[in-house]
Automatic annotation (TrEMBL):
Keyword Manganese listed: no
Annotated Peptidase S54 rhomboid domain residues: 115-256
GO biological process assignments: proteolysis
Span of the signal peptide: none
Membership in a protein family: Belongs to the peptidase S54 family.
Membrane topology reported for the UniProt record: Multi-pass membrane protein
GO molecular function annotations of the record: serine-type endopeptidase activity
Residue spans crossing the bilayer: 78-97, 117-136, 157-180, 186-209, 216-234, 240-258, 265-288
InterPro entries: Peptidase_S54_rhomboid_dom, Rhomboid-like_sf, Rhomboid_protease_S54
Location of this chain's protein in the cell: Membrane
Protein's UniProt name: Rhomboid family intramembrane serine protease
Pfam family, one: Rhomboid
Entry superkingdom: Bacteria
Amino acid sequence: MATDQPIPGAPDVVPVCPRHPDRVAYVRCQRCGRPACPECQRPAAVGIQCVDCVRQAARSAPRTTTAVGGRVRQGKPVVTFTIIGICVVSFVLQLVTNGAWTTQFQFVPAWGLDEPWRFLTAAFLHSTGFPAHILFNMWALYVTGQFLEPVLGRARFITLCLVSAVAASVGVVLLTSPVLTTQGWAWGPAVVGASGMVFGLFGAMVPVLRRLGANAAQVIGLIAVNGVIGFVVPGIAWQAHLGGLVAGLVLGWGFSHAPRGRQKLVAWLLPAAVVVVLVAVTLARYAATIWL
């Protein structure tokens, strides 16, 4: 005969964590009632919940978005820190490889058609002879990323960064021409740096700030000052700055002014359209270049 009544004198069953059966757990989840070991406990508004209930609640909770459609997230701007980390690691590799890393990934207009990855990779390199180059760019990326990444969301922000970086190299292609040297025709010089990407972020901040009702005068002034420096100080690729700036303005305006119900659609279609235009004008420029 079976019975579900406890047997007098029988030892009590020790509760264990379902996720870690080897661990005794006397604390129970306030939501599902299952035992939870310290590793699986999460503080809740009332009591403790297990990680499974917390994840289930997060999946079922409605997503909160910003005014421009970015998903609201807690924590640090991971995309910004990731890009900064890649640039720092790349800079170290430039130093330890005695320039080989730079040569492999820098952008030169004459090489762009055969090695198109250079349109993007040059943004993660910096001048090894001028440390202020990477220091300023990383500071500017950190400052702008702290604002734009939470507002736009990670997907839009990383799209903005990458498209602006490519547009910077396209600006160099469009606004420079082959020159005759003692060794023949050459199309250069080599370009490195995240400045074009940074100018893209500067450009995007203007329409985003205006959309949020904030004053964009300081950002506009910063763009103007750095733009003038690019024309006055030799060795600065103002063409890349201009290319990144234009792309950032276009994407920033599109992201911030997309209708509420179509923000996701615009987040995909607008960057795709910008990339198509960049590819088209680049190919046209290469096709129009006559090598003598």
